[in-house]
Amino acid sequence: MSIDRKSILSTPVKDTMVNSNTSLRELMENFAVSGGFTTSKISVAYEIMKEMFSDENTTFLSFPADIISTGTRGVINEIVRRKLVDVIITTTGTLDHDIARSFRDYYCGSFDYPDRELKDIGVNRLGSVVIPDESYGEIMEQFMQSRLEKLYGEKKVWPGWELIHRFGLEINNESSILYNAAKNNIKVFVPGITDGSFGSQLWSFREMNPDFMVDVLQDEHELSDIIFDSKKTGSLMIGGGISKHHTIWWNQFRGGLDYSVYITTAQEFDGSLSGAKLEEAISWKKIRPDAKFVNVYGDATVILPLLLGPFL
C-alpha cells in the first residue's frame, strides 16, 4: 500500500455529536469521521454491507450459537425475515437455542453466579444468560422426537439442510430464525450437526431406528451448487470456528468472497481461525485480493444492533 501526505490528510476528525434524537443511520455517518477506533471499523463495515445487500450476489451469514441465547437472536431473526441474506452457516447450538426459546424462556443472569450452586438447583449458565433444565434438554426432546417419527415416515435419509428446513416450519413462531429461514427458503447449513442437544436427539432416534440417516455430504453438494451458480458472493461472519471456516472454505472454489465483514473478539497471535484476519484468507484464495472487507473487533451483541439497525 502506497500513500502520500495529501491523501492521508484528506478527512479531518470531527467530534461525534449525539442526543436523544440521533438515529442509528446518523450515528453511522458520525462514525465515518470520528477517526477511531472501533467506530471507524464499524463505519467501513456499514458501507460494505450497504453495497453487499444491494448488489446481485449470494450473501452468506455465519455465526456461533452463543449469541442466539441472548437478545441478539432478534437482530439475526430480522435479517432473515427481511431476506437480507441468502445462506446461513452456523453451529448446532443455534438449532438448540432457537427451538428452545420458541417455547420456553431463558433468563438474564450474571457471569458471577456460583456455578456449583446453579448445578444443584437445575440451572445452566451460558455467560450471563441462565437456562433452567426444563428450557433446554427437556423441551428439545419433547419437540424433536415426535416430529422425527413423522419425518421418518416420509423417508429414511435426510440432508441436514432439509431436515432443518422441516423443523423450522414445525416451529411456527415468528420469533424463530429457523421458522423465518424456512418460510423464506433460506437454507441453513450446520456442518457439525451431531453436536449439541439437536445432534443428541438425532442420535437417540437413530438408536431406535438404525436405517435413519442424516446425509451430511448432500449438504456439501447443495453448497457447491450455490457457490458455482453465484455471480458474486459476500459474507457477514460473526465469530470463528466451523461456521466461519465452512463459509470461506466453500468460497475458495470460486476464487474467494467479493465482500466480507468479520466481527470477532479473538486475536491472531495463537494462529486460530477465529483470530485469523480476513487478510490471511486471501493467501488461501478464500477472499479475493480485490474484495471489499473489514475486521471489526468487539462483542457482537453490541456491534450487530448498531451495525444492522439502519437496514432493519
What does this protein look like?
This protein has 312 residues and is of the alpha/beta class. 47% of the residues lie in helices and 17% in strands. It has 14 helices and eleven strands. Strands 7-2-1-9-10-11 form a six-stranded parallel beta sheet, with helices on both faces. The protein has a three-stranded antiparallel beta sheet with strand order 3-5-4. Helix 4 packs parallel to helix 9, helix 5 packs across helix 7 and helix 5 packs across helix 10. The two termini are 35 Å apart.
Please tell me the overall pLDDT: 96
Radius of gyration: 21 Å
Net shape: globular
Low-confidence stretches: none
Count of helical stretches: 14
E-strand count:
11
Q: Give the terminus-to-terminus CA distance.
A: 35 Å
Range of strand content: 15-25%
Major β-sheet annotation: 6 strands, parallel
Helix share bin: 40-55%
Strand order in the sheet with the most strands: 7-2-1-9-10-11
